[in-house]
Design brief:
Length: about 325
């Protein structure tokens, strides 16, 4: 490869566009580098160093050249091709927001305005959106990449994910305080025809009520609602001395805190010690902590419900 072109490619992290290359070398130099196999065209006007392409079948290679790149390089190639006319969106935006692990061979997603002048290519899906502005609040820059705002990315990605994987990015985004259930509800309101929209609406309602994990949602829907159950405060904030704690389900009148222990906490001595210290601290202000393990919540639902009602009744009598 021509030395000047090689330096240009190296400065670009293995990637160069025709517009940039032809500012310093003649067009035939770029054509010769492709002919010799040093560079590979992965998108119109976008070229990468050939050694960056993965050829091992176990790495889930897609049919398009861009799908044979490391995901980070593929994203840069797509952005270079879009050249300010589109932003990462849908599942690609989720990866940029850190809510999904990208994999080699994944289809890349860009959103563009109706008249942007770019269209889908092998390995890249372009979604046209009426009224899209490639500027805040529609699009933001994250880690140097132009991406659709998080709420839009989560709503757009919902029907694309397998049903068992849909809730995790939404729950994590809320738990990490990247967004709120209210902002997501607003974004969902602009997508009346979204596939499986009702399931996302229900999830957002549960998050709005204070649920912060799949287990808490299960408990809310299957165990701790209905006849006889109080209106629990979810993720209730309690301060004891200098420490602030958040309680899974707090029956304020009875001073009972129901804690839902996930499957991963079972058998962890360190977590057990943390829980015991926390429970003892709550006891100093008259709050009784009742813990239910994941197994019991899922497999002994009726018994857990009966025990909870009995504890609440006893506490109501004692505190009354």
């Amino acid at each position: 490869m021509n030395a000047v072109l090689r330096e240009l490619v190296e400065r670009g992290g293995g990637l160069v566009t025709r517009a940039v290359a032809e500012q310093v070398v003649p067009e035939w130099t770029l054509r010769r580098a492709c002919g010799s196999g040093d560079l590979v065209r992965v998108l119109p006007e976008v070229f990468v160093a050939a050694h960056l392409l993965r050829d091992r079948p176990e790495q889930r290679i897609g049919p398009a050249a861009i799908g044979r790149l490391d995901p980070a390089v593929g994203v840069r190639a797509a952005q270079a091709w879009a050249d300010g006319r589109g932003a990462l969106s849908h599942l690609s935006a989720l990866a940029a927001w850190g809510l999904r692990r990208p994999r080699a061979g994944d289809l890349l997603h860009l959103s563009a305005s109706a008249g942007a002048g770019i269209r889908s290519r092998p390995g890249v899906a372009v979604h046209r959106r009426q009224g899209l502005l490639l500027a805040p609040p529609h699009v933001v820059v994250r880690r140097g990449l132009s991406v659709t705002r998080l709420e839009q990315a989560l709503v757009d990605s919902w029907p694309m994910l397998p049903p068992g994987e849909r809730r995790a990015p939404v729950i994590r985004a809320v738990n990490d305080r990247l967004t709120t259930p209210e902002r997501l509800v607003e974004a969902l309101g602009a997508a009346p025809k979204l596939r499986d929209r009702a399931a996302l609406r229900t999830l957002l309602a549960r998050l709005g009520e204070g649920c912060r994990s799949p287990l808490e949602i299960w408990g809310h829907e299957q165990v701790f609602t209905g006849r006889g159950m109080p209106a629990f405060r979810r993720q209730a904030r309690v301060r004891v001395g200098r420490r602030t704690m958040y309680l899974d389900l707090f029956a304020e009148r009875e001073r009972v805190n129901i804690e839902l222990d996930g499957a991963t906490t079972h058998g962890d001595p360190r977590q057990r010690e943390i829980d015991l210290r926390r429970d003892a601290l709550l006891a100093t202000v008259g709050i009784v902590v009742v813990r239910f393990a994941h197994r019991r919540l899922v497999h002994e639902t009726d018994e857990v419900r009966r025990e909870t009602l009995a504890i609440l009744a006893r506490r109501a009598t004692a505190t009354g």
